[in-house]
Structures are given as C-alpha cells and as structure tokens.
Design a protein that fits this description.
Number of strands: 12
Number of helices: 5
Protein name: RES family NAD+ phosphorylase
Helix content: 10-25%
Structural class: alpha+beta
Pfam families: RES
Number of domains: 1
Organism: Conexibacter stalactiti
Domain RES: 49-179
InterPro entries: RES_dom
Largest sheet: 5 strands, mixed
C-alpha cells in the first residue's frame, strides 16, 4: 500500500505517554547545527517527521518549530544515524541519555496504531520525505489530538522504537549523560549495537 498525502481519518488514535522513568537515547553531530544535546533543530524540514513550515526543497530557520530525534535503544540510535552510511563514524559525534522531566505525549505510528492515526505503518520507512513531513505538520496542527509532543514510530533501519520530539517538548527533556561517541566507556556497548545492524565502528 502506498503512502497517501494527508489529511487522514483519525479513528481513536493511540497516544503513548513517556515519563521521567523512560530514558531516551540520542546520537548527534553537535557541530552540524550547534545544538545542545537536548536541543531542538529549528532549521528544516530535513528529515522524516520534521514539521517546519518551509518547503522541503528550500528549508529555512523556523523560530516556532523545532525537532529532536532520539530512540529507546542504542541499536536504534546507531542504525538511524549511521545505517545509510554503512559505518559508525565516532569522531565528531556525541552520545546523550535524555530524561523527560514531565510526561511526553507521543502519537503512536507503529503497526496497527498507524491506521488509527489515519496513515499506514510504512510511514516510518518510506522514502518520500515531503509526504512524511506533510503528515507531521498535519498531526501537529490537529486540535483533536491535543498538544502532541511528537511521534513514536518503527525505525526503517532496525524496527526498534524511534521518537521525533517537537518543540512543545523543549525544556521537558534534559541531558543526564553526555559523552563523545569515542569515549572509552561507550566502546564495548557501541560495538555490540553496531554489530546488531551489521555496521563496523571506526
């Protein structure tokens, strides 16, 4: 089934709530957007569930909209950041463990929950970024969904839970651990995570 453009039909959409006991993991390249570990990228749209208002072909800074991508497992972080590159490049990258400071409300796009949100589960893996970004904007703007903090979806790279947080969660997540990705204390865990998705670590 092909991904259609929004609008969709909301039929009892599932909201997943994450709280302070549900850590989120992140790998990023801090120099790319000069952002703190728990910072939201205001430039876009660039990636799958960016909800910035500029055209996909002409991304720009959006003072009112920002996004932060993270995951529930290190395997997912590694796969999402490095899967298309074929190798884990530690230099220039940072690992962070983020802790919600309040409940985060995420629209569930996994498996059959995607249908209740008006779309299809494949939205987490299709390549048409303009379409997935249009969906992100549509959900963000739906009054009947309340003030969503973001979405939770199945990673195209590994199937694990990935999360896109929107700027409504700015200030609601804090970085409790920050380390360069080449830190010695991460080495073993990183190699195991990379091996799970058939990636080498350099």
């Amino acid at each position: 089934m092909l991904l259609a453009a929004p609008p969709g039909r909301l039929a009892n959409p599932r909201i997943v709530v994450l709280g302070p006991g549900d850590p989120l993991l992140r790998i990023d390249a801090p120099a790319a957007h000069d952002a703190p570990a728990a910072g939201f990228r205001r430039y876009g749209p660039l990636l799958r569930f960016d909800h910035h208002r500029a055209a996909a072909a002409a991304p720009e800074h959006d003072d009112e909209r920002g996004v932060l991508y993270c995951a529930r497992t290190l395997v997912c972080c590694v796969a999402e950041v490095f899967g298309d590159r074929g190798v884990v490049q530690r230099d220039g990258h940072r690992f962070a463990r983020l802790a919600p400071t309040r409940e985060l409300r995420l629209l569930d796009l996994r498996e059959t929950a995607a249908t209740a949100a008006g779309t299809i589960p494949a939205i987490g893996s299709v390549g048409e970024r303009e379409l997935t970004q249009a969906w992100a904007r549509w959900w963000y703007e739906q009054p009947e969904l309340g003030r969503l903090d973001g979405v939770i979806y199945s990673s195209a790279q590994c199937g694990h839970d990935a999360v896109a947080l929107w700027e409504r969660a700015d200030g609601a997540v804090s970085a409790v651990v920050q380390l360069p990705l080449d830190a010695a204390e991460l080495a073993d865990e990183l190699v195991v995570a990379a091996a799970a998705v058939q990636l080498a670590v350099v």
